[in-house]
Amino acid sequence: MKKNHQECFCALCRSPRVIKVSRELSVMNYLQIFLISALTVYLLFPYLQLKSLLVIPFIWGSFEAVKKLLYRRDLKCELCGFDPTWYKKDVKLARRKVEEHLSLNPEGQLLLKRRQQAQQFLSKN
Ligand SMILES: [Zn+2]
Fold it and tell me: What is the CB-side half-sphere exposure of residue 119 using CA atoms within 13 A?
């Protein structure tokens, strides 16, 4: 059976992560795009005629954008705030975002410290 989520580890703090939203549009999304497009074209056709077909790429683009946004929101580590997409684009900015996230979330900082202490303890013994 195909899993509807992806399991991985955070590249920075090594905490286990689950990514639920896929980057690609699902069959269901294509069906939604088709239905919304068909309805919009049907409603706009008496006023715009063939120009009403131009809403299709617009609707499709909106779906892609929302999907990408949800995927990126899912990708960011909840514990340390590390975002691989920012890291790929701008390492300094990604670092600043992690620092910001940690300063706003003292619990995450505490957990990270405990994990580091545990790792140090395990490597010594
Ligand atoms: Zn992390």
Answer: 9
Q: How far is the CA of 25 from the centre of ligand 1 (A)?
A: 26
Compute the distance between CA of residue 44 and CA of residue 55 in angstroms, rounded to an integer. 9
Ligand 1 centroid to 111 CA: how many Å? 11
CA 84 to ligand 1 center in whole angstroms = 10
Distance 73 CA to ligand 1 centre (A): 13
pTM for the full predicted model: 0.69
Q: What is the pLDDT of residues 103-125, one digit of tens each?
A: 888 887 787 788 788 888 888 87
Domain boundaries, the chain: 1-75, 79-125
